[in-house]
From TrEMBL:
Name of the protein described by the UniProt record: DUF2798 domain-containing protein
Transmembrane segments: 12-34, 46-65
InterPro entries xref list: DUF2798
Sorted UniProt keywords: Membrane, Transmembrane, Transmembrane helix
Superkingdom: Bacteria
UniProt cross-references to Pfam families, sorted A to Z: DUF2798 (PF11391)
Length: 74
């Protein structure tokens, strides 16, 4: 299996991290649709929208956040 070059690790990390975060957040926000039986469709729609918005934010903010965290810790 071919692997992605290490220099793109930042983008891979951001994609995975934003995907997991958006999945959990949208599941919590749509939990009330479980009783209606429409949870899956509402969750998927909100997950995809939030992930498309969040992915560029995570990818571009991560280097700043990493430097900030490094500056705040030893």
């Amino acid at each position: 299996m071919r692997k992605i070059p290490r220099r793109y690790g930042h983008f891979v990390f951001g994609t995975i991290q934003s995907g997991i975060t958006c999945a959990v957040a949208s599941a919590i926000a749509n939990a009330h649709f479980v009783t209606d039986g429409t949870f899956a469709s509402h969750w998927l729609r909100s997950y995809l929208f939030s992930w498309l918005v969040m992915l560029p934010v995570v990818v571009f903010a991560a280097p700043f956040i990493r430097r900030l965290a490094d500056g705040m810790t030893r």
